[in-house]
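Appendix B. Chain record.
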Amino acid sequence: MDIEANRSSRKWTRKELVGRILWACFSPLFRWSPRPFWGWRRFLLTSFGAKVGQEVRIAPSAKIFIPWTLEIDDWSSIGFEALIYNLGTIKIGKNVTISQRAHLCAGTHDFRDPTMPLVKSQIKIGDNAWICADAFVGPDVTVEKGGIAAARAVVIKDVAAETIVAGNPARPKGTR
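C-alpha cells predicted for this chain:
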C-alpha cells in the first residue's frame, strides 16, 4: 500500500471541505437538541443542502456525515445512534425506518489500487423498507420497496422488493 500517496491525494473540493468544516461546527446544535425537536433537525439538515421530506424524524444521536448527500422522503425515520456515512448519495424513500445503531456506509476505498483511493458510493433504500437494529448496508446497495434487513444483517448485495434478508452476509429468509 502507498499510504503517502493516499494521504496526499485530493479527495474533496474546496467547497466540500468548507461545507464539512461548517457542518462540524453546527452539528452540535443537531446532536444536543431535545428529542422532540424533529423540525429543528430537519431545518438544520436542509440548511446544509439535504433534501428532507415532511414529518421526517431523525434522532438527535444519529450521525450524519455530509448533509448535502442525503435525501430522505416523507414520513421516514432514523433511530438513535444510527450512522449515516454518506460520502456518496444516500436516498431514503417514503415510510422507511432506519432503526437504532444501523449503519449505512456509502464510502469505501479501492483496495485493488495501491494508493487506496476513496470511493464515494451510493445507497438507495426504497419506500416502506426497514433497516433493523445494528444492520449494516454497504456501498452501492439498493434495498428495494418493502425490503427488510433484519437485525445485525450485513447487506452487501441488493435486496429485492418485499424480501427479508438476515445474516452475515445477508441472505433471503422470506418475504413480507
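Further analysis of this model is presented in Appendix C.
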